[in-house]
Design a protein that fits this description.
By secondary structure, this protein is α+β, with helices and mostly antiparallel strands. Helix content is about 20%, strand content about 30%. It contains five helices and 24 strands. The protein has helices at about 1-15, 55-75, 95-140, 170-175, 280-285, and strands at about 25-30, 35-40, 225, 230-235, 245, 260-265, 270-275, 290-295, 305, 310, 320-325, 330-335, 355-360, 360-365, 375-380, 390-395, 405, 410-415, 420-430, 435-445, 450-455, 460-465, 470, 475. The chain has a four-stranded antiparallel β-sheet. A four-stranded antiparallel β-sheet has the order 5-6-7-8. A hairpin with a 6-residue loop joins β18 (about 410-415) and β19 (about 420-430). The protein is elongated and about 125 Å long. The relative contact order is 0.09.
Length: about 475
């Protein structure tokens, strides 16, 4: 009856003014019994707030489940909702300190790794040298040695003993002991010793005549052969893949004649010029002087002469003479009609349009022009003003050769920059204005030779082969005509 009474009251309310706003729903309570609920909104919502109810309880339940799932996923304990504390995401000071310490140790280990890698490279080079020395020693004759019998009492003074018959005085000197009575320091594995006797030395000498005359490394003849490359240093970083190194044949104070210079030519703003007191300091990588050039340099065509650095300014055909002692530009001049920045480079590229060179005859520029249509042009330059004194146009296509250099007024070209075994394939004599094809063996030891120049100071070739600074010995034939005057 009470339930029917409630329904009747509900019907009266629904038929009133609030009929359109009243609501009634049915649902099970938390014990599983059927429960009917109806609401009639008040004209002022704040006077009849609704607290609790099935929706709120359901939301609380779902929120609790979500909090439990979040706790499982994050691995962190959530504080109760009523505390309003939330989850603390701030790292502990101990963890931050441990992280910083680990990062520092990693950096130290990385530096140590790089140092060990450099030492390993040095050890590999030494091992190669020792291996070559071992092979050289193995190739020497190794004759059986007879035991040395102690001298008799009648031969106490070996220093005064006379050679036996059939021997010579040189044999006697080579076999006598030192002043302490020990002859072991004079022994060599190629010698045989007899008991209290002397052997006659015999030497066989085979003379190998040089083609086109006698070899004369102090003269100005034509190149006969090029030696194997000798490595002096490997560049430290990627900036040293290409470069140029040189020595002034007529050094000017304050720099001595043994001073060597190096420029790494990777990059767009090449300005650093490194100076080394001698070859040993260059090999160790200890420069004694670093100069900052006022104008950026382009490519590997720079050279050194009479106290000045000569080079091509970047993105132009302008040549610059930089005075090393005064540290300023002493002369600046455009090379007429010369191609630049990739118009007429060597076959390996690298913006090698203008190549400067110094030999017994003076300062040269090797380049090409639009008029020459890519053929090599050789110009003799005034070393003071950079003015062109005379030019020669050859028939050698500049893009068909890897590099070139001048010796005694003759231009030599190298066929390939990458082939391990290649040749010097052309020679052009400015004295006769004649060229010819040749085939002189040449080795690119490291497979990317970007600079080859003649060093008048050492009468060798200097080259920059794939991060490595190398040199080549030269054999020249005796000149057939009188040497030209040295300017």
């Amino acid at each position: 009856m009470f339930f029917l009474f409630l329904l009747c009251m509900c019907g009266l309310l629904l038929r009133g003014n609030a009929q359109d706003r009243a609501s009634l729903w049915r649902g099970n309570d938390r014990t599983g019994q059927c429960q009917y609920t109806f609401t009639v909104p008040s004209p002022m919502e704040a006077t009849c707030p609704q607290v609790g109810g099935p929706e709120v309880e359901g939301l609380k339940t779902r929120l609790s489940v979500l909090e439990a799932l979040m706790s499982q996923l994050s691995g962190k304990d959530l504080q109760p909702r009523g505390g309003h504390q939330g989850v603390s995401a701030r790292p502990q000071p101990e963890l931050q300190e441990a992280l910083n310490r680990a990062v520092g140790e990693r950096n130290l280990l990385q530096g140590e790794k790089e140092r060990l890698e450099r030492e390993l490279e040095t050890l590999k080079l030494r091992m190669d040298e020792m291996r070559r020395e071992t092979e050289r020693l193995r190739s020497r004759p190794c004759l059986t040695q007879n035991p040395v019998v102690a001298p008799s009492s009648t031969q106490q003074d070996w220093g005064r003993a006379r050679p036996a018959a059939g021997s010579n005085q040189m044999t006697h000197l080579m076999t006598r002991p030192n002043r302490h009575g020990d002859s072991s320091n004079l022994r060599d594995s190629a010698w045989q010793y007899g008991a209290l006797s002397f052997q006659e030395l015999k030497a066989e000498v085979t003379e190998v005549p040089a083609p086109d005359g006698t070899v004369d490394n102090t003269g100005c003849g034509e190149v006969i052969s090029v030696g194997v490359p000798v490595t002096h240093r490997k560049a430290d970083n990627i900036a040293g893949k290409y470069g140029v190194w040189m020595q002034d044949p007529e050094a000017v104070s304050p720099y001595g004649p043994n001073m060597l210079w190096r420029i790494d030519t990777i990059g767009t703003e090449i300005r650093q010029l490194y100076g080394y007191d001698d070859m040993e300091q260059l090999s160790k990588g200890f420069p004694s002087k670093v100069l900052l050039l006022p104008d950026p340099l382009e490519s590997t065509g720079a050279t050194m002469y009479r106290g000045s650095l000569y080079y091509q300014r970047r993105l132009s055909r302008t040549l610059i003479r930089y005075d090393l002692a005064a540290e300023h530009v002493a002369a600046r001049r455009e090379l007429p009609h010369a191609g630049f920045h990739g118009q007429f480079p060597y076959s390996w590229g690298g913006y090698t349009d203008i190549d400067l060179s110094v030999d017994e005859k003076g300062l040269w520029a090797i380049y090409s022009t639009s008029k020459a249509q890519g053929a090599i042009v050789i110009s003799k330059l005034d070393p003071h003003s950079l003015e062109v004194k005379k030019s020669w146009e050859t028939s050698i296509r500049k893009a068909s050769v890897a590099n070139s250099f001048m010796i005694c007024g003759k231009l030599y070209t190298v066929a390939s920059y990458a082939a391990r075994d290649t040749t010097i394939n052309h020679v052009y004599d400015t004295g006769t204005s004649q060229g010819k094809a040749v085939s002189i063996p040449f080795k690119n030891k490291y497979g990317y030779n970007s600079m080859i120049d003649y060093s008048l100071a050492q009468r060798k070739l200097f080259a920059w082969d794939n991060f490595h600074l190398v040199s080549y010995d030269l054999r020249l034939g005796r000149q057939q005509a009188n040497r030209g005057h040295h300017e």
